[in-house]
Amino acid sequence: MPQGKQVPVIINGIKYSSITEAVEKIGIRKQLLEFRLKSPDFPAYQKEGVPKESPKRPADADIHLISHSHQLYQRIPSEAPNEPQILKPLRRKSL
Questions:
Q1: Cα–chain-centroid distance for residue 1?
Q2: Span 51-75, average pLDDT
Q3: CA dihedral 41, 42, 44, 47 (to 10 degrees)
Q4: Is 4 part of any domain?
Q5: Are 66 and 36 within one domain?
Q6: Among 39, 54, 48, 49, which Cα is nearest to 10's?
Q7: Which of the 8 DSSP states describes residue 79?
Q8: Does residue 14 lie in a domain region?
Q9: Is residue 1 part of a domain?
Q10: Are residues 61 and 41 part of one domain?
Q11: What does the pLDDT average to over 67-79?
């Protein structure tokens, strides 16, 4: 049975000769690895010679999201160093 073209991948700075080799050495499912290779949210996972898009980020770069019990919170840094941070619950946007 003919095999497809082997595409070298680089994961966390380590080069693997193919997706199959990376899957075997890292110990994750092939589908998960392929998702991470395509996703701009995983810049450490890339196919050699294929540039990735930058992750899409909100306009306000100072927003930090925290997930707890399937609820997203916006962490708002406090003005004074000794004040606690504010956690504001976020509502999901309708698509």
A1: 34
A2: 60
A3: -110
A4: no
A5: no
A6: 48
A7: S
A8: yes
A9: no
A10: no
A11: 64
* CB 36, CB 25: distance < 8 Å: no
Number of domains forming the structure of the chain: 2
As a whole number of angstroms, the distance between CA 25 and CA 78 comes to: 43
Whole domain around residue 30: which residue ranges?
Answer: 9-47
Do 86 and 66 lie in a common domain? Answer: yes
Average pLDDT over residues 68-88: 66
Structure confidence at residue 49 as a pLDDT band (50, 70, 90): confident
Based on the domain organization, do 68 and 40 belong to the same domain?
no
> CA-CA distance, 22 to 95, in Å (whole number)?
36
Comparing C-alpha atoms, which of 75, 70, 71, 69 is closest to residue 87? Answer: 75
What does the block give as tokens for 44?
A: 């450490």
Tokens 């991948």 belong to which residue? 9
All residues at 6 or more sequence positions from 75 whose CB lies less than 8 Å from its CB, including other chains:
63, 64, 65, 66, 85, 86, 87
